[in-house]
């Protein structure tokens, strides 16, 4: 999907406006969601987290447009390829099963688990 320069500017300006309106959060204030959070969360909260990740990647992809430099500098294209065919429920189910099978690894970030347990295996299968 390509995005016109005016639209890129508008998206960027909107994001900047929101960031300024809400104030800049310091890195230590933004919690990294781990398996500990995941296993204690409701199904609705898990879906909300996954929707947030999906939206962040869609915004990044739309903002960058079709740009070969972008593809080499970010994991977004790999995430898109590795998650192709997945649904929110299939990703949620995979995460639920993985954390249930690995209770000793509950400190592992959910995004890392998505990358290594869902995205990477699919990327290896599609080569």
Spell out the key features of this protein.
127 residues; 70% helix; mainly alpha; single chain
Number of helices: 7
Mean pLDDT: 82
Instruction: Classify the beta-strand content into a percent band.
Output: under 5%
- Give the H and E element order: HHHHHHH
In which range does the helix fraction lie? Answer: over 70%
Counting DSSP E segments of at least 2 residues, the number of strands comes to 0
Topology:
Blueprint: H1 5-22, H2 35-40, H3 43-64, H4 68-73, H5 76-82, H6 88-101, H7 110-125
Account of the 3D structure:
The protein has helices at 5-22, 35-40, 43-64, 68-73, 76-82, 88-101, 110-125. It is an all-alpha fold and 127 residues long. The longest helix is centred in the middle third of the chain and has 22 residues, at 43-64. The two termini are 23 Å apart. 70% of the residues lie in helices and 0% in strands. The radius of gyration is 16 Å and the shape is globular. The chain is built from seven helices and no strands.
Explain briefly what this protein structure is.
With 127 residues, the protein is an all-alpha fold. It has seven helices and no strands.
